[in-house]
Amino acid sequence: MSKESDYGKVAPKIRDEDRAHLGLTEAAFEKMATTLTEKIRGYARAGFRKPADVSRLLNKEGIKTAAGSEWNPRIVYFLLSRIFGDSPRKPKAPQQTTSKLPEQNKFEQARQKARKQSVKAAEPPKQERLPRTIKARPPSAPVPLTADEMAARLKALQDHFNA
Length: 163
Known about the structure:
Distance between the termini: 72 Å
Largest sheet: none
Helix content: 40-55%
């Protein structure tokens, strides 16, 4: 048995439950689609085009459906088809397969070489960085301890490590 979805061949149809979220009439649905068009197109420009992504973003912004509930991918699918359904994708321009003539190739190579040379000439010369010098403090002279101070420190260390 195939695990593929059967929905790839047939587009889903709007059910009555979906109509409540999108607006009960065509005019209400059109009004909702019009108010959300700029936001949805902004999501699309940012790379969020799938219904699951758009529904997550709409819910995150606190935008509710006409019924006052959160968006789900199914409802967003119908909203996206309303917004983008009337504007088909632009056909790609046919690629030109004309090749450059040999004289044009030589001219183009010379032009690129001249550009590289002018860019190099315009760059300021690089300055070498000198190694940083580290200033070291001279060692401080040890402070002599009295016998009583030395005994007190030794006792404190023994108490610390024996505890």
